[in-house]
Design brief:
The chain has about 450 residues and is of the alpha/beta class. Helix content is about 30%, strand content about 20%. It has a twelve-stranded mixed β-sheet with strand order 1-2-16-15-14-13-9-12-11-10-17-18, with helices on one face. Strands 5-4-3-6-7-8 form a six-stranded parallel β-sheet, with helices on both faces.
Length: about 450
C-alpha cells in the first residue's frame, strides 16, 4: 500500500486513497492550571450557536460562564447544554461584565456582528464570530481596527479551513504540483425547504418571549414578525443571502488553499428567485464570476436542486478537487496525446513523416505510464470534526495570543467577496471594491 507524508493508506480502500492523520489536540492529563482555563460566553444560542457551544465545551479547559439571547427559549437551551449554573441574560452587556469571562462566541444574525465584535473587544474579550464577519462591506475595516486597538483575538467561523483536508490541499498548491492556477470552480446545491431557510417557528414565539425591538438592531422598524425572526437569512435587513451564508465558506476555502488574502477585483452576478417565492428578499439561486488578481473564480449556489459541494482548482499541472469530504489531485503534464488533426490537412508524404516523428518523440517509453494514473485521493479519518479543530485553533490563539489564519483581516477579505456578489446582483452591474474609499462601486 502507498503512504504519504501526514497520512497512511486506508485498508480496503485501495492504494489510491490516503487517510490523513488528524492533528493531535494537546493532551492535558489531570487538572489544568487556573491560568490555562478559558471562561467562555456566547451571544446567540440559535441553530448555529447551540451547535458551536456544544462543540466548544468538548475541548479541554473550556468552561461556559454565561449566555445571552433575546429569546427566552434559547436561554433555557443554553442551560440544557452548559448546565443550570451558568449566567443567562437578554442583555449582552451584562454577560460582558461577568467575572471570569475570557472569550465570547458571537452567533447572531449578520446585522449584529459588527456591533457585538466591537463591544467584546472594547470589554477586553476575545471573539469567535460566525461568518460572514460583516453585514455590509464598510463594517469590516472598523472591526479590524477595534481588534487591533484592544489587542484582541478575533477568529471568524468558516471552520473548513481548519480541516486536515484543506491543509493538504494548501500543501499541494504551495508545492507547485498544481502548476499555475488558471481557474477555480465552486458549486453547491440544496433541494429542501430547510435548506432554503424555511425553518419552523417555535410555538411560543411572541413579543413576550422575544425582545423584538432590540433584535431588530439597525434594521428597519416593523411590527413583530415571527417569520422574519426565525428565517432572517431570507432578508437583507438581517442577513446577507446566499452569498453571505454559503458563498462565504467556498470563498474562505479558496483564499486559504490558494494563499490569497485579498478581495476579488470585481464580481458579476446573476440569479433570481426560481423556487421559493415566499416573500423573501434574496435570490434562491446565485451565480457569480469573480476576478481575482491571480485567477478567475466561477461560483454557483442553488436552493432549487441538489448538487454536492465541490471546489475545483485547475492548474497547468493538474486538477485538485475538494468534494465528498475529501480531496482528489489528478496530475496533468499538459502534453498532446496524439499528433493532432492539423497535419491531416498536409499531403500524405509530409503527413506520414510528421506522424512517425511525433510518435518517436512523444510515445511513453517502457516503464512510463500515463501521468493521470498518479491520481491520489485524501480523506479525513472517520469521526473527524473540522469545527472542533477550528475551536482548538481559536482557544490556542486565546492562550498564546497568536492569531490563527482566519483573523479579522482574512474574514473581511472573504466577506468582501460576498458583498461584491450581492451588490452586483441587486444593482445589475459589475461590482468593484474601492479600498481607498472603503466602498463598493458599480
Amino acid at each position: 500500500m502507498r503512504a504519504a507524508a501526514g497520512g497512511a493508506a486506508a485498508a480496503g480502500l485501495g492504494s489510491s486513497v490516503i487517510v490523513l492523520n488528524p492533528r493531535l489536540l494537546e493532551a492535558r492529563p489531570g487538572p489544568m492550571a487556573a491560568n490555562d482555563r478559558i471562561g467562555l460566553g456566547i451571544i446567540g444560542v440559535g441553530m448555529q450557536g447551540s451547535g458551536l457551544l456544544r462543540t466548544a465545551l468538548r475541548l479541554p479547559g473550556v468552561e461556559c460562564v454565561g449566555a445571552a439571547d433575546l429569546y427566552t427559549g434559547r436561554l433555557r437551551l443554553a442551560t440544557e447544554i452548559a448546565g443550570d449554573n451558568i449566567f443567562t441574560t437578554r442583555d449582552y452587556r451584562e454577560l460582558l461584565a461577568r467575572p471570569g469571562l475570557d472569550a465570547v462566541i458571537v452567533a447572531t444574525p449578520d446585522h449584529w456582528h459588527a456591533r457585538l465584535v466591537k463591544a467584546c473587544c472594547e470589554a477586553g474579550k476575545d471573539v469567535y464570530c460566525e461568518k460572514p464577519m460583516s453585514h455590509v462591506a464598510e463594517e469590516g475595516p472598523e472591526m479590524i481596527a477595534v481588534a487591533k486597538k484592544h489587542k484582541r483575538i478575533v477568529q471568524i467561523g468558516s471552520q473548513g479551513i481548519s480541516s486536515v483536508v484543506y491543509a493538504k490541499a494548501k500543501e499541494i498548491v504551495a508545492s507547485g504540483a498544481l502548476g499555475r492556477l488558471t481557474l477555480v470552480e465552486s458549486s453547491q446545491g440544496r433541494n429542501s425547504p430547510d435548506g432554503a431557510w424555511q425553518y419552523p417557528v417555535p410555538p411560543d414565539a411572541s413579543p413576550r418571549t422575544i425582545d423584538w425591538d432590540t433584535w431588530l438592531g439597525k434594521a428597519s422598524r416593523r411590527p413583530f414578525n415571527a417569520i422574519h425572526w426565525a428565517r432572517w437569512r431570507c432578508w437583507m435587513d438581517y442577513g446577507t443571502g446566499l452569498a453571505g451564508d454559503l458563498f462565504v465558506h467556498l470563498i474562505t476555502g479558496i483564499n486559504y488553499i490558494a494563499g490569497t488574502n485579498e478581495p476579488p477585483e470585481r464580481a458579476q452576478s446573476t440569479g433570481g428567485i426560481f423556487r421559493f417565492n415566499d416573500g423573501r428578499g434574496v435570490p434562491d439561486t446565485l451565480t457569480t464570476l469573480f476576478t481575482y488578481r491571480q485567477y478567475p473564480v466561477y461560483m454557483r449556489v442553488s436552493q432549487g436542486s441538489y448538487s454536492p459541494t465541490a471546489t475545483r482548482f485547475m492548474g497547468t499541472g493538474g486538477v485538485l478537487e475538494l468534494s465528498g469530504g475529501g480531496l482528489t489531485f489528478t496530475p496533468q503534464d499538459g502534453k498532446d496525446r496524439s499528433p493532432g488533426s492539423f497535419a491531416m490537412a498536409w499531403p500524405r508524404e509530409l503527413r506520414e513523416a510528421y506522424v512517425r516523428n511525433w510518435h518517436a518523440e512523444n510515445d511513453p517509453k517502457p516503464g512510463q505510464g500515463d501521468v493521470a494514473a498518479n491520481s491520489q485521493r485524501y480523506v479525513a479519518p472517520t469521526g473527524y470534526s473540522s469545527l472542533r479543530e477550528h475551536f482548538h485553533n481559536f482557544f490556542t490563539s486565546v492562550r498564546t495570543r497568536k492569531a490563527w489564519v482566519e483573523d479579522a483581516t482574512f474574514g473581511h477579505n472573504a466577506a468582501l467577496g460576498c458583498h461584491l456578489a450581492n451588490y452586483s446582483y441587486f444593482n445589475k452591474t459589475i461590482a468593484t471594491w474601492d479600498a481607498a474609499a472603503n466602498k463598493i462601486r458599480g
